[in-house]
């Protein structure tokens, strides 16, 4: 028999449970923007104290209810409970919330009710834990659930549970170990003294702490699988999973995770590090990019092309040599003044509107890549004077041909426009505004990741989602966001695609693989022309503008650039005023909305439930006896119930591998079972059962004794 | 547990029979069921002693017929002799007209004499010169025989073996048992001091009580199924007859009664089936070549038939 828990033992358990519950509460309160964790912990302490002191239940309940009332009036009403105001507040809250609940208006209940429900939840949890501790002597499932809970929050929410998991694991293992020792000790008749018990569990605690420390200190492999979260998000949002990185002409649907791809695209021999521009886009659709025209006019470009307006040459000619490794027909353009040199039987064509260049083989008239060609490049420098001179007033009378670089989708959320103003209001010129936006991401905690980028859902705007919700992504997120922010300020900007420098093979040779596919921004600065910007975190190296002024001024300029204050990003969970202002809440819409949000969670829960059901089914021989016994306790003692219970026992024995052979008599089977289980009860039971099935009269038997035998046997089968 | 009176009989037998509890029990089963027993084994293992012990325990009149090749039927059933005083033939009844008869070495005598005995066993009466004499009940014959492979014997026709309820083998005693046998036989034969523990009337009552032992439908089905299976076995030329089914049921009733139960369980049937069925099965010649014996066939049949473990429908 289990010895009842000593009070000091319960105290030890409760201390550990308290620490675990603390790890529960922290993320919940953090994620729900609830403060005052100390009061919730105090509530738990009060509850534990009441149990430890073995207060009668009426006293415990009143203490807890008083505490909850006191907390709610103090935090939500700002008055003490036991004053007139406090009681009035409490009564009004109760009346109001009951009214809401009765009319099923669950959206408009006050926070008092939410707090109250949360306390109730803690209360129930405490009761459950108490039950597990004192009756079952096992808290294993609770600990597993805690770890699962924290791991889920750590994965899917901003909460960082790295330490919490380690701590919960340690507390949990110690608690499980102590409880196991408790169960173990209950099998020996002698009663251990307290110090002896402590010595008994001490090696286990030392082991747990030691192993935990060692495990924490050991170096760990990177995860074998990539982060599953973007994948899950992608799948639940209806996307097509992880794509491969590379240059792709279709940009209508941006977002989603990328896998690295080391396929070599081309090699470039160049004196400097260069960005390789291929194409541009002008129309943002809130999901991706398109061009405002279907097919541009195709022209043969003149051998010289200059993408920048009035920049001046600063260096000698750099003869760049490109060797293509793929059959892609596009032609790469560097920044600066340049001139192509290629075999006579090829042509370079350009779509005039987009600036997209491609090559074609002249003779069979089929599009084909030029295997290698050379570009004569003259690098340029910008006039800082001109850049400084890009006052916003100059944008008022732009030519209509710039309209397509100011295009924005109609449903662009207002907060994107507000953010653009916030970022740039302290600086006057277009150039400075562009720089402010370019720097905004790095200074405000955005992260670069190819694996965690989300795909916008039906209702989402790609830029809005990145700027305010995910804050993690790759070049497309950063560059598209910058273009949209600039356009919302009426500064023409376009989205440019191509490749970045790539890995240097030797001093002047660079290998460009699909991994170097990139997108960046070109901003139209009045007086200078289209100037490239690089907003993507981690890529600002090779596109720095060189200026034609002296160093001192340049420094000053750069200092000035850093000055623009970076306004704080609005908190993502900003309350939506319009929604609360609406008088009648559309429950249907609200439910649909909720379903959208909790969809994946529901699916995971369903899968979990299925798994739990399967596990329960497979482990049914463990828990079925308890169920049978409980059922049997409710039923009258008759031959019918005895027969039923006997059949249950036979079933249970089957799980144990004890199956009666068809030609085996019951008595022989009973003998075998008794041998195997080291019991004698089966023979007793079978003798009675034989009488039941082979005799013509139902004799008087001691059902209570039979039931004891049955209970004992069926319990043996679950062991 | 055990029926008290039966237990006393068995205890009494055990005073002289060392370690042959099973044989004693089976003999008593046959006695209670009103059937006859054929004890088969090599000479000298205690067959006769067993019968004598049983007969003495019951206290019924007991006759012993030693079968020899020259024994005549009239030596068994009796003979009519002319009485010069009354000028009439008078019937002198033979030793068969008795409660308990030991037919020793039954296979040593001629078939003619054997059939006289077997007929008396079957009919429960003897007929000489048109006069029928009913043998008083209880009538219990225990025949012994040496295994038929021995020289100078007349094997009993297999069909006639049907008359015996049980055929039992004695077997040799174990080492310790044999020492104990020597110790007891050192001074005087213990059989001489054996006292009866039960009267004929009491035995008759017991036999009636045995018939009251209940056999549930499912157990009857089991018995019939077993019997049918013997007729379908590949090595069996002739399976057991319905009389064998009845015999098995009677024996099972007696055994259940002996075990103190008022109902028969399949265990009883399984336990008794080799003794009841094996001498009634006639094997095909090929069984002999494959070293298959009746006991083996019985085992196979037992393994084939499922034991009833469901309550019979009428009580549901």
Automatic annotation (TrEMBL), chain A:
Keywords: Membrane, Transmembrane, Transmembrane helix. The keyword Membrane applies. It comes from the Bacteria. The chain crosses the membrane at residues 12-31, 37-53, 113-132, 139-157, 163-185, 197-218, 600-617. SMART domains: TGc. Residues 467-537 form the Transglutaminase-like domain. Pfam families: DUF4129, TgpA_N, Transglut_core. Residues 559-582 are annotated as: Disordered. This is Transglutaminase-like domain-containing protein. It comes from Caryophanon tenue. The lineage of its organism: Bacteria, Bacillati, Bacillota, Bacilli, Bacillales.
């Amino acid at each position: 028999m289990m010895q009842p828990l000593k009070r000091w033992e319960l105290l030890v358990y409760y201390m550990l449970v308290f620490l675990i519950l603390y790890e529960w509460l922290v993320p919940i309160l953090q994620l729900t923007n609830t403060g005052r964790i100390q009061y919730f912990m105090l509530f738990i302490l009060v509850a534990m104290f009441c149990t430890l002191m073995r207060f009668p239940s009426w006293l415990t309940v009143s203490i807890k209810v008083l505490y909850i009332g006191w907390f709610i009036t103090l935090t939500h009403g700002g008055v003490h409970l036991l004053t007139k105001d406090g009681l009035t507040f409490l009564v009004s809250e109760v009346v109001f919330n009951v009214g809401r609940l009765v009319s099923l208006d669950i959206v408009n209940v006050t926070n008092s009710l939410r707090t109250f429900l949360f306390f109730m939840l803690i209360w129930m949890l405490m009761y459950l834990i108490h039950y597990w501790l004192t009756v079952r002597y096992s808290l294993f499932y609770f600990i597993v659930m805690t770890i699962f809970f924290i791991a889920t929050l750590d994965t899917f929410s901003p909460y960082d549970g790295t330490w919490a998991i380690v701590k919960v694991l340690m507390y949990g293992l110690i608690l499980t170990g102590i409880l196991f020792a408790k169960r173990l000790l209950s099998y020996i008749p002698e009663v251990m003294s307290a110090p002896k018990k402590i010595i008994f569990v001490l090696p286990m605690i030392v082991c747990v702490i030691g192993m935990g420390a060692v495990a924490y200190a050991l170096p760990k492999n990177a995860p074998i699988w990539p982060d599953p979260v973007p994948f899950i998000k992608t799948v639940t949002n209806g996307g097509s999973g992880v794509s491969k990185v590379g240059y792709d002409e279709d940009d209508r649907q941006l977002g989603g995770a990328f896998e690295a791809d080391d396929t070599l695209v081309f090699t470039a021999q160049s004196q400097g590090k260069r960005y390789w521009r291929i194409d541009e886009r002008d129309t943002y659709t809130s999901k991706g990019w398109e061009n405002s025209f279907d097919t541009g006019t195709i022209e043969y470009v003149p051998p010289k092309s200059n993408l920048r307006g009035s920049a001046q040459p600063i260096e000698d000619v750099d003869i760049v040599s490109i060797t293509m490794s793929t059959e892609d027909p596009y032609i790469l353009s560097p920044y600066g003044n340049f001139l192509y040199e290629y075999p006579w039987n090829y042509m370079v064509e350009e779509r005039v509107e987009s600036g997209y260049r491609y090559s074609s083989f002249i003779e069979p008239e089929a599009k084909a890549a030029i295997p290698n060609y050379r570009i004569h490049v003259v690098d340029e420098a910008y006039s800082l004077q001109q850049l400084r001179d890009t006052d916003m007033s100059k944008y008022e009378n732009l030519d209509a041909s710039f309209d397509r670089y100011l295009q924005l989708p109609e449903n662009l959320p207002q907060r994107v426009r507000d953010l653009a103003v916030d970022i740039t209001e302290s600086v006057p010129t277009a150039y400075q505004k562009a720089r402010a936006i370019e720097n905004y991401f790095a200074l405000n905690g955005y992260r670069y990741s190819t694996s965690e980028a989300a795909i916008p859902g039906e209702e989402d705007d790609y830029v809005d989602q990145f700027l305010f919700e995910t804050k993690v992504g790759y070049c497309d997120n950063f560059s598209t966001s910058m273009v949209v922010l600039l356009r919302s300020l009426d500064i023409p900007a376009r989205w440019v695609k191509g490749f970045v420098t790539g890995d240097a093979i030797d001093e002047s040779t660079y290998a460009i693989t699909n991994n170097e596919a990139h997108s960046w921004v070109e901003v139209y600065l009045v007086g200078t022309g289209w100037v490239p910007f690089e907003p993507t975190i981690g890529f600002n190296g090779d596109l720095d503008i060189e200026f034609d002024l002296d160093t001192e001024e340049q420094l000053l300029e750069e200092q000035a650039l850093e000055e623009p204050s970076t306004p704080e990003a609005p908190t993502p969970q900003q309350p939506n005023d319009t929604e609360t202002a609406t008088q009648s809440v559309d429950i249907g819409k609200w439910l649909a909305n909720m379903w959208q949000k909790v969809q994946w969670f529901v699916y995971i829960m369903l899968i979990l439930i299925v798994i739990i059901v399967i596990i329960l089914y497979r482990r049914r021989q463990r828990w079925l006896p308890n169920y049978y016994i409980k059922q049997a306790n409710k039923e009258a003692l008759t031959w019918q119930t005895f027969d039923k219970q006997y059949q249950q026992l036979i079933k249970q024995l089957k799980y144990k591998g004890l199956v009666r052979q068809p030609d085996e008599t019951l008595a022989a089977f009973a003998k075998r079972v008794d041998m195997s289980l080291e019991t004698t009860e089966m023979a007793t039971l079978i003798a009675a059962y034989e009488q039941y099935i082979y005799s013509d009269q139902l004799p008087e038997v001691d059902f209570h004794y039979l039931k004891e035998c049955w209970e004992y046997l069926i319990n043996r089968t679950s062991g | 547990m055990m029926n008290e009176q039966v237990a006393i009989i068995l205890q009494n037998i055990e005073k002289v029979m060392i370690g042959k509890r099973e044989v004693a029990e089976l003999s008593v089963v046959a006695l209670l069921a009103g059937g006859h027993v054929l004890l088969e084994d090599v000479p000298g293992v205690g067959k006769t002693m067993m019968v004598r012990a049983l007969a003495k325990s019951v206290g019924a009149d007991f006759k012993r017929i030693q079968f020899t090749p020259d024994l005549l039927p009239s030596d068994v059933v009796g003979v009519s002799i002319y009485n010069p005083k009354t000028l009439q033939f008078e019937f002198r009844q033979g030793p068969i007209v008795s409660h308990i008869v030991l037919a020793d070495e039954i296979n040593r005598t001629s078939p003619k004499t054997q059939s006289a005995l077997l007929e008396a066993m079957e009919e429960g009466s003897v007929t000489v010169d048109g006069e029928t004499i009913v043998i008083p009940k209880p009538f219990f014959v225990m025949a012994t025989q040496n295994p038929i492979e021995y020289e100078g014997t007349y094997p009993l026709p297999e069909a006639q073996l049907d008359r015996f309820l049980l055929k039992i083998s004695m077997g040799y005693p174990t080492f310790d048992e044999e020492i104990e046998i020597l110790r007891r036989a050192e001074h005087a034969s213990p059989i001489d001091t054996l006292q009866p523990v039960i009267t004929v009337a009491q035995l008759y009552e017991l036999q009636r009580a045995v018939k009251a032992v209940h056999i549930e439908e499912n157990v009857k089905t089991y018995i019939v199924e077993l019997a049918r299976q013997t007729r379908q076995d590949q090595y069996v030329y002739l399976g057991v007859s319905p009389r064998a089914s009845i015999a098995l049921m009677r024996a099972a009733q007696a055994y259940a009664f002996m075990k103190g139960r008022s109902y028969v369980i399949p265990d009883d049937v399984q336990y008794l089936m080799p003794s009841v069925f094996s001498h009634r099965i006639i094997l095909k010649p090929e069984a002999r070549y494959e070293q298959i014996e009746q006991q083996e066939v019985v085992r196979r049949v037992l393994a084939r038939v499922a034991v009833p473990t469901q309550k019979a429908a009428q009580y549901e």
